[in-house]
Amino acid sequence: MGRAGALRWAALATALALAGSGCSGSDGAAPSAPAAAPPVATSPANVGLPQLPGQAFYVSDRTNAARQLAALRGQGRTADADSLLRIAAQPSAQWLGEQDAREIAEQVSRRATEADRTAVFVAYNIPHRDCGLYSAGGAADAAAYRAWITGVAEALADRRAWVVLEPDAVPHTLDGCGVKGDQAAERYGLLAFAVQELKKRPNVRVYLDAGNPGWAQDPAELAGALRKSGIAAADGFAVNVANFYETGRNAAYGGGLSAALGGKHFVIDTSRNGNGPLGGDSWCNPPGRALGERPTADTGRPGVDAYLWVKNPGESDGECGRGEPRAGEFWLPYALGLARAAR
């Protein structure tokens, strides 16, 4: 980290301390993502996190990274806490799954509004989710999903929010997942319904997931699947969710897909793409990765609405056979590695 970066993080650490004291997938395989949202109940161990000047998106002190930061400070592990601050102090998405989604959406969006920021959510509850892999689950059937997404939309009310809709759901209808025929048609209908319900809320933006540059898809076929899924009524699409591809490559990939969709805008998940992908089939907790560009709605790239941390850095992709935690659980050594490798 350069001198300017070091000074910036030192200033942020000071602000954090004051707040806390009360003085102020891979090539051909889908990436796994957290299966459940972290709890949002207030904890005495929470450390107040300041909202960064100029930042449009909400920084929550209820994330797994923020909770771990509080624990590290309580243990006197200052160096580790300073490293983890590079994650905890940035806005990251709130994942909504089977449990308490409506309540979490209402609470987080309300706190974001009180802070004059925009909350970012991931709706992740489509039936047959993740092809039965590390983040398997989802709503029991179509009726349950429609009720679930309607509840989420109602919870957001008239508050500002961005929603990344169902990572992997569209691309999995075009690969070897098995979501084909009637199941694929049902999924497209559910996604279109979700877009429709969310867009009833006046200040909600919706971005349908559209895979990543390393996930072999025919662009015309993917564009067709996105049209069936309601992209026309959405604000755009999301790329690189929970993956590692460089921002420039994602911008090119998204730009091509945008052209096939009549100029639809898109967002890029930059949470862990600072060093790019490891290569091969290494999408599950690959070592040596780094945080990417910080979340911002000022990307300087035409058609790219934002860089977002959709995947929460430090949360496991799944039990990949090397002793990792299950999908969505916070993994401190991995989080510290991402933070320390960041430029």
UniProtKB/TrEMBL annotation:
InterPro entries recorded: Beta_cellobiohydrolase (IPR016288), Beta_cellobiohydrolase_sf (IPR036434), Glyco_hydro_6_CS (IPR001524)
Domain of life per record: Bacteria
GO terms under biological process: cellulose catabolic process
Residues reported in the UniProt entry to bind substrate: 95, 215, 243, 283, 311, 315
Record keyword Transcription present: no
Pfam families membership: Glyco_hydro_6 (PF01341)
Active-site residues, as the UniProt record annotates them: 130, 168 (proton donor), 317 (proton acceptor)
Record's keyword terms, sorted: Carbohydrate metabolism, Cellulose degradation, Disulfide bond, Glycosidase, Hydrolase, Polysaccharide degradation, Signal
Keyword Metal-binding listed: no
Enzyme Commission identifier(s): 3.2.1.-
UniProt signal peptide: 1-29
GO MF terms, alphabetically ordered: hydrolase activity, hydrolyzing O-glycosyl compounds
Family: Belongs to the glycosyl hydrolase family 6.
The protein's name in its UniProt record: Glucanase
